[in-house]
Design brief:
By secondary structure, this protein is of the alpha+beta class. It is built from 9 helices and 21 strands. The chain folds into 3 domains: 152 residues, Probable tRNA modification gtpase trme, domain 1 (Gyrase A, domain 2), CATH 3.30.1360.120; 82 residues, Alpha-Beta Plaits (2-Layer Sandwich), CATH 3.30.70.1400; 126 residues, Beta Barrel (Elongation Factor Tu (Ef-tu), domain 3). Strands 12-13-14-11-3-15 form a 6-stranded mixed beta sheet, with helices on both faces. The chain has a 6-stranded antiparallel beta barrel with strand order 16-19-18-17-20-21. The chain has a 5-stranded antiparallel beta sheet with strand order 5-8-9-4-10.
């Protein structure tokens, strides 16, 4: 049995919450944690490259209960939730999810959650690492709408990889295989209440299982592991290698409150024909009309393999800093260093040469390239 990770290395009192799967992650040998949405998040169980290969060849289980939910209910929940995002939620049916942005008055991105519509006036927002519960409650104050906004007892797991389908089929039967991408069903597993979604953070075939009773985390974890053993399931941390290959952005690194959708390539999340007003609408219209001064681009970085960046690396052109690398890592499959850089728009065209200053390594040549780096039409997760 592996030695549990020494939590005294990071734990600072009860303010850092543990997920319902925490004891299971310790038992299965988590080798490190980070703090995400005020919770402990297991980042790896083995070598990161080893976990990457297992994800793209087999099936993995992630504790992503740190994707805290904001639940919005009440007679005016649709109207209220529709004001938070540029996406037109009239186009989101009950039983369907959407990748959305939550926008500030100036067009900045507060968060980029997956939204689930559980009822006509019942929504969940599965959050990246920022305090949307407080944002939503602040917006609701004095708006004159009848809504209740809470953090519910909901904790997701991700089952990801090419063998994910037989695992969830063993758990939930054939009907789960009929789920279209970004759709979900509400069900139970041995009396454990869950929502199963056709979503994930990998660019691979995947599902998320949202536990609706935190007291049963251990049971759910072991049931998933049991169903996955014939398919070589193993718990891992999130794969930054795979998500960068897939063009998936990470809020706080590649996206921040200071960015807007047009800078980071998420303009598809603005439904131009949306009739209802929403926060940031006027600002986004002005930004679109004026154009942006910087863009998030894909980059290939020359030379020997690099390690995942822990800071933003300066990006230079003609000896001048013109931006910064937000995420960069070595892709074992492509055998190149890949990543994203936020650069002045004059240096954002495909083929533009850059220089990246890597701390402790030195300057490396880089080139602006298309993203995603793998499966540009996102066919894999929809299969």
């Amino acid at each position: 049995m592996p030695v549990p990770f020494d939590m005294s290395a990071v734990q600072c009192g009860a303010r850092l919450r543990r997920t319902p799967f925490f004891e299971a992650t310790q038992r299965y040998g988590a080798k490190g944690y980070t703090v995400y949405n005020h919770m402990l998040f297991p980042i790896r169980f083995a070598d990161l490259e080893e976990e990457y290969w297992h994800l793209i060849n087999h099936v993995t289980l992630w504790d992503v209960a740190v994707e805290r939910q904001v639940e919005i209910m009440g007679p005016d929940a649709f109207t209220f939730t529709n004001t938070l995002t540029p996406r037109d939620l009239a186009r989101c049916a009950v039983g369907q999810g959407k990748y959305v942005v939550i926008t500030a008055q100036d067009g900045g991105i507060v968060n980029d959650p997956v939204l689930l519509r559980l009822g006509e006036n019942h929504f969940w927002l599965a959050l990246a690492d920022s305090d949307v519960l407080l944002w939503a409650r602040g917006v609701a104050r004095g708006c004159g709408l009848d809504v209740q906004i809470i953090e519910p007892d909901v904790s997701p797991l991700q089952v990801q990889g090419p063998k994910a389908k037989p695992v969830v089929q063993a758990l939930f039967g054939d009907r789960v295989l009929g789920l279209s991408y970004y759709h979900f069903l509400e069900t139970t597993l041995d009396g454990i209440p869950v929502v199963v979604t056709r979503t994930g953070w990998t660019g691979e075939v995947g599902y998320e299982i949202y536990l609706r009773d935190g007291s049963r985390g251990e049971e759910l974890w072991e049931r998933v592991m049991e169903a996955g053993r014939p398919h070589h399931i193993r718990p891992t941390g999130p794969s930054d290698i795979r998500r960068i290959e897939a063009g998936i952005l990470n809020w706080g690194a590649d996206i921040t409150l200071d960015n807007n959708v047009y800078e980071v390539g998420l303009e598809r999340l603005v439904d131009e024909g949306k009739e209802a007003d929403y926060i940031g609408r006027d600002a986004l219209r002005r930004i679109k009309a004026a154009g942006v001064s910087r863009k998030l681009v894909g980059v290939e970085i020359e030379g020997a393999r690099i390690e995942f960046n822990a800071t933003r690396w300066p990006a230079l052109a003609a000896g001048r800093v013109v931006g910064h690398v937000t995420s960069a890592i070595y892709s074992p499959r492509l055998e190149i260093n890949i990543g994203y850089a936020m650069v002045e728009v004059a240096h954002a065209a495909l083929g533009t040469p850059l220089v990246v200053a890597i701390p402790g390594v030195g300057d490396r040549g880089a080139t602006v390239v298309p993203k995603p780096f793998v499966d540009p039409n996102k066919a894999i997760p929809k299969t």
